[in-house]
Amino acid sequence: MTGRVAGHNPAVRVARFMLGLALLACLAEVLSACGSGGARSPTTYGVEGTTATLRNTGCDPSPRAGVHGPDRLKVVSPCAAFQGTVNEAPVKNPDGDVSFQVSPDPGYASFLNAQNRREGGLHVEIVPRDQPGCTPGQPVHAGDVPDLGTCSGRDVAAPEVGAHVRIIGSWVLDRSNGWFEIHPTWRIQPAGCRVPQVIGQSLRRARTMILRNLCVIGKIAHRPSRGRLKDRVIGTRPRPGSLLRWHARVNLTVGLGRRS
After folding, report:
1. Do the first three CATH levels of 42-190 and 193-255 match, i.e. the same topology?
2. Which positions ≥6 away from 191 have C-beta within 8 Å?
3. CATH number of 42-190, picked from 2.40.50, 2.120.10, 1.20.58, 1.10.3470
4. Dihedral through CA 47, CA 51, CA 52, CA 56, nearest 10?
5. Is the pLDDT confidence value at 93 over 90?
């Protein structure tokens, strides 16, 4: 017989060998999460907002897109969500980035290191390609800084001081400053209801402050109070500073003044 058993055919052996190499490469890619658009750092597991399963959040597949001098940034988590209160007015930097500091909510302090705590919070930067005012798809530059990518059309605007926000972006370590950042930032949205300090305010003023903080007015009760607190808020439930779900109800107690 001149035929050969298939298993001993050199061409078959080569094909099987190449298939084995392909399977090994595929397995390595899955284990390293390369196919998801960026390597996932195991150090981020268990940190609030960085569970690598954040989906439908508008994260960019390129975690340093539009960053000036991206090599200085070490990506800790390519898609992270952070919550806190803005404690510094946003400033425009020479490279076009808008930056500000945010104090973390409970559960998010692990985003900060010692340098962040000395600076007063997590450093957040919005790069020019994600800011309002550019034309989607067009090249972006800031001053003398060219090649900042193309406009994304995200229109991410900097929040005001005191705003309670949820920030989604790339969590990185800035090697030049030694602190952690969200940089670039792809979305900033209200983080829910924070009960404002309205004790002593008129009911009208209290309503405005509560709605501005993404809460809604609940029950309004009245009880005797000092004369100067007549028609003024003398109590809230939950108490001021409480963090609640979006549009949670805040009950108010209003003073009646002295009994006649």
Report:
1. no
2. 83, 84, 105, 164, 165, 166
3. 2.40.50
4. -120
5. yes
pLDDT tens-place string over residues 106-157: 889 999 999 999 999 999 999 999 999 999 999 998 888 888 999 999 999 9
Q: Domain 193-255 has what CATH class?
A: alpha beta
pTM of the model: 0.62
Q: Is the pLDDT of residue 246 over 70?
A: yes
Strand partners, 126: 98
The DSSP line for 165-194 is EEEEEEEEEETTTTEEEEEEEEEEEE--EE
CA dist 76 and 41 (Å) reads: 6
Q: Assign residue 58 a region (left: φ > 0; alpha: ψ between -120 and 50; beta: otherwise).
A: left
- Give the C-alpha separation, 163 to 127, whole Å: 20
List the domain boundaries for the chain.
42-190, 193-255
% of residues, the chain, pLDDT over 90:
58
